[in-house]
Design goal:
By secondary structure, the protein is mainly alpha-helical. It has a domain of about 25 residues. It is built from 3 helices and 2 strands; from the N terminus they run H-E-E-H-H. The chain has a two-stranded antiparallel sheet. A hairpin with a 2-residue loop joins strand 1 and strand 2. The protein is elongated. The chain starts with a helix and ends with a helix.
Length: about 50
């Protein structure tokens, strides 16, 4: 399990660790966009 998440004996993929890879990923950008849309939607609903 630890090897799968990069917390084992080699926590890096090449010269980068999983946090660096996640921070630069399109998936994270998509998650942030989804959260932003959800927040905007809820804020608009609260004003009604």
């Amino acid at each position: 399990m630890l090897e799968a998440i990069g917390a084992g004996s080699a926590p890096r993929v090449g010269s980068r660790d999983w946090a660096d890879i996640w921070e630069d990923s399109a998936e994270l950008a998509n998650v942030k966009d989804t959260i932003s849309q959800m927040r905007s939607s809820r804020q608009a609903a609260a004003k009604e």
